[in-house]
Amino acid sequence: MAAGSVTALANVSLRINDDEYVAIVGPSGCGKSTLLHVLGCVDAPTAGAVFFEGRDVSWLADAERSRIRLRRIGFVFQRFFLLPMLTASENVELPQAEAGIPKMVRRARTAELLEYVGLAQRADHRPSQLSGGEMQRVAIARALANGPRLLLADEPTGELDQATGDQIVRLLDRVNADGTAVVVVTHDPAVAARASRVLPMRDGRFEPDGPPR
Ligand SMILES: Nc1ncnc2c1ncn2[C@@H]1O[C@H](COP(=O)(O)OP(=O)(O)O)[C@@H](O)[C@H]1O
Ligand SMILES: [Mg+2]
After folding, report:
1. Residues 208, 187: contact at Cβ < 8 Å?
2. Class in CATH terms, 21-206
3. Which of 47, 160, 165, 202 shows the smallest number of beta carbons within 10 Å?
4. Among 34, 46, 79, 205, which residue has the most ligand 1 atoms within 8 Å of its CB, making it the best to mutate?
């Protein structure tokens, strides 16, 4: 190992099935976000392989990885990362525009998605006009914009109070029930409790009692 390099993940083996809802839990720095980035084709592993929809994506060029992320994977973050100058609608439209969806189609889909997350009436509001929970619901609508197979959420309730976090948890439940695989990184036992499988991590590995299936 080169001086200064960090082994963030080691000997991690994991299979996520189509309809699964998986929670990854563990102390700060144990590699949860890194694992999510590897699963989400953001980072490539330095060793080992990642398969997505049956295809080895470990060695793909950046452009191809971006294409898979745009069309097949949705990301939700603790700090929402909405674009502040864009309205809720425009934030949800953006990934559809990037995917080349025609304007009329993406308008209609955006309206459906904002309805789905219960924010139809806030379509024209900017993030600064929304509460944390509302911003996260817009972020979830954006993550679903191109109909992903997999939704990855990194501490999605970390900035929210309990009641607001519960709304997000129910929304993630519904996304999973409606047919999208969900992998959530969380410190929140209420979030982890909803998952069909909980994987405790420590020091870049799964705990012995949280093996892959
Ligand atoms: N860009 C980076 N460069 C160097 N080390 C990093 C980087 N990102 C994360 N790490 C290190 O990798 C380990 C795992 O980090 P991370 O996946 O962010 O943990 P978690 O999300 O569980 O808090 C930590 O030791 C962290 O310091
Ligand atoms: Mg993290």
Report:
1. no
2. alpha beta
3. 47
4. 34
